[in-house]
Design a protein that fits this description.
Blueprint: H1 3-7, E1 9-11, H2 16-26, E2 30-34, E3 40-45, H3 46-54, E4 72-73, H4 80-90, E5 94-98, E6 104-109, H5 110-114, E7 122-126, E8 147-148, E9 151-152, H6 153-162, E10 168-173, H7 177-184, E11 193-198, H8 204-207, E12 220-224, E13 227-229, H9 233-243, E14 247-257, E15 261-266, E16 269-275, E17 278-290, H10 306-315, E18 320-324, E19 329-331, H11 335-344, E20 358-359
Parallel strand pairs: 1-2, 7-10, 7-12, 10-11, 14-18
Antiparallel strand pairs: 2-3, 4-20, 5-6, 8-9, 12-17, 13-19, 14-17, 15-16
Helix pairs in contact: 4-6
């Protein structure tokens, strides 16, 4: 716990004067009232105390009768995009972080979440796929607009990009693209700038980049629009810009357990038996950073994948590197993975996540 957060804490049996001192010491515009076990009992903002003083309540009064004991808090595992959206929806400047027992473990500040330095880099999100493996869910809604824990996957991606200082985002659309445009428009409502690459036919995970009107001035992120992830995209950008490569591919380890005993043979002679072995592979996460010059190497009006772009760059002897992710990552490409994403969100397609906000009452 940070020193500022410790300074902002007040015990529930103290006075309003102690709340004022906590507001002064912590400089967080909020005082957090806890019990002897550090369980969060309520909070005071600057405005709460100011209104009490204007009503003539003595500062020597016990704080308990005036405590705002109903409040919004989040769990430590709640993602940045979810927290940011919650704060914007409820017009909150701070949101406490509590564990499963209600103990105060941290504080999200809007300054920390959107006050990150703005990056000159842009991002292109591939959101044109039909999602045939998810039919009938995708008959009337494009795959990236399916909701996970009450929010479209693509909106989660946009908010996640913004949390790393990226404010210029381009969405490549095709199938039911008007649904995406109607939802995001120019991005103003979310605090970013969104424009569109409109495919007239499927162009794969890389082909839409040939539609860019202007070549980007800086390395930029390219990612699939059906990912539910907390990947540190800022760290991948920093890695790319420090490494001198023309392209960076996000990777992660993948393990698959064969559900049967496996046998090795030489002819008909058994040489080894292994019960349910685990196969380990390194997989492509569908998240990349590429230099602007690679755009010129993408053929126009062709179905062209990002792995093909990397393979062709290797053939030309260009330097590529891999950036490993350990963060949560789900590619919502089939119903089993969508179900897993919904399970991680502790909600359903129409509901809010149980972990997104929790009201605690003293």
């Amino acid at each position: 716990m940070s020193p500022a957060l410790d300074d902002a804490k007040v015990l529930h049996h103290q006075r309003l004067l102690d709340v004022l001192w906590a507001l002064e010491r912590g400089s967080l515009s909020i005082a957090l009232v806890v019990d002897e076990h550090d369980r969060l009992r309520g909070l005071f903002t600057d405005g709460d105390v100011r209104r009490l003083v204007l009503r003539g309540v003595p500062v020597e009064s016990p704080l308990a009768p005036h405590l705002r004991s109903e409040f919004i808090a989040v769990r430590p595992e709640t993602g940045r995009a979810d927290v940011l959206e919650l704060m914007k929806a409820r017009h909150l400047g701070q949101v406490p972080i509590v564990d499963g027992d209600g103990r105060l473990v941290g504080l999200h500040s809007i300054r920390d979440l959107i006050g990150v330095p703005l990056r000159p880099n842009m991002a292109v999100v591939m959101a044109g796929g039909r999602g045939t493996r998810l039919l009938p869910l995708t008959e009337r809604i494009p795959k990236p607009m399916l909701t996970v824990a009450g929010r479209p996957i693509l909106e989660r991606i946009v908010l996640h990009l913004m949390s790393f200082g990226i404010r210029r985002i381009t969405l490549a659309i095709n199938y039911l693209g008007h649904v995406i445009e109607d939802h995001f428009k120019d991005g103003t409502a979310l605090g970013c700038h969104i424009d569109y690459l409109r495919e007239t036919k499927p162009l794969g995970t890389g082909g839409a980049l040939a539609l860019l009107r202007d070549r980007p001035a800086h390395p930029f992120i390219v990612m699939n629009g059906d990912l539910v992830t907390q990947a540190n995209l800022g760290a991948m950008l920093d890695f790319h810009q420090a490494g001198g490569q023309v392209g960076t591919m996000g990777i992660r380890r993948y393990m698959h357990t064969v559900p049967f005993g496996c046998v090795r043979l030489e002819g008909d002679r058994i040489t080894a038996c292994e019960e349910k072995p685990q196969l380990r592979q390194t997989i492509n996460t569908g998240m990349y950073v590429i230099n602007p010059e690679l755009v010129a190497q993408i053929p126009k009006d062709q179905d062209y994948g990002m792995p093909t772009l990397f393979q062709h760059a290797l053939g030309r002897g260009q330097l590529l590197r891999a950036f490993p992710f350990e963060d949560d990552w789900i590619d919502v490409g089939q119903k089993s993975e969508l179900a897993r994403a919904l399970g991680q969100g502790d909600g359903d397609e129409a509901g809010e996540p149980a972990s997104a906000e929790a009201g605690w009452k003293a």
